[in-house]
Design a protein that fits this description.
Methylamine Dehydrogenase, Chain H; 3-stranded antiparallel β-sheet; 11 strands; about 40% strand
């Protein structure tokens, strides 16, 4: 049995991303929107991976975020490069979310269903991950 501290593998609509034990990332599957673009090979010190429909997001040990793949709804908009002290990331189909160490949330990408509504800017004291474990059998 392997116990993973964070997301170490994630699947999009037609691609998959895995975090290796040395902090690097590998991706396979469809690359029709650059979701498996070789840029992911340049990332080191990755601690979490997550996928949307056709984009991928990684969290680095320094608390910054990197994103690649489809950007048709700004789900890989450069705004994510301004975030520091990120402790967790997640993806929806066409949007991405970051939880910061101060308990606030940042969201970018598609807002057709209000999934990135400015209400997320008013959230404070969001529960931060504590000993979150995923058991892989």
């Amino acid at each position: 049995m392997i116990v993973a501290e964070r997301n170490t593998i994630s699947c999009g609509n037609s691609h998959s991303v895995v975090l290796l034990s040395n902090g690097t990332v590998r991706c396979w599957g469809s690359n029709n929107h650059n979701q498996c673009d070789p840029v992911h090979l340049t990332f080191t010190n990755v601690i979490q991976v997550t996928c949307g429909h056709s984009h991928s997001v990684v969290l680095l040990t320094d608390g910054t975020v990197r994103c690649w793949g489809n950007n048709n709804e700004n789900q890989c908009d450069p705004v994510h490069q301004t975030f520091t002290d990120v402790i967790q990331v997640a993806c929806g189909e066409y949007h991405s979310v970051a939880l910061l160490s101060n308990g606030t949330v940042r969201c970018w990408g598609d807002n057709m269903e209000n999934q990135c509504d400015p209400v997320h800017l008013t959230l404070t004291d969001v529960m931060t991950p504590y000993n979150e474990k995923c058991l892989l059998w």
